[in-house]
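Support reply, case 0932

Customer input (verbatim):
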Amino acid sequence: MENDVPADRHRALHLLLTESFPYTAEQFVHGRSWVGARPERRVTAWRGDRPVAHVGILRRFLRIGSRDQLVGEVGLVAVARGLQGTGVGRLLAEHVRERLTRLGVPFCYLNCQSSVLGYYQSVGRLRLEATATRHFEADDELTAVTTSAHPMILPVTARGRADWPAGPLIERDGTEL
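Our regenerated output:
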């Protein structure tokens, strides 16, 4: 549980995440292992005292049209550089799905850049075409912005993609994970 993560683990995760996200490394302030919304749950893999893979999970409601949709939002997905392409990411995705199933959320939700779209599709995530996400940035929580990232879902306890509400805009109403 997040309350039980000791400071030394946060520092180790901080190093993995700043290496994995160099373009936003300055946002991991004060040794934190999160940027915007803090994860409720994490799926991590360790080699000794060094984290080699990480995913943060946060349950939240997204607003799509007039409907509120409960999701398990996934973010801060990282695999150590030397282990990328070795199957660690696939195992990580399987463990995330198991965790989301235990949490009882209908859908997994994430936004990703084009450079990792293929990975997420290879582990079963479904791209939402012609859909944008609006949220607050971690460094400006007063101005909502629309992201150019690709929104993706994975039915977890939902029967399938058809259970996802239709709409061109996903309102996060908070900061991204």
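We compared this against your earlier run and they match. Two observations from our side: The mean pLDDT is 93. DSSP finds three helices and nine strands in the chain. Please reopen the case if you see a mismatch on your end.
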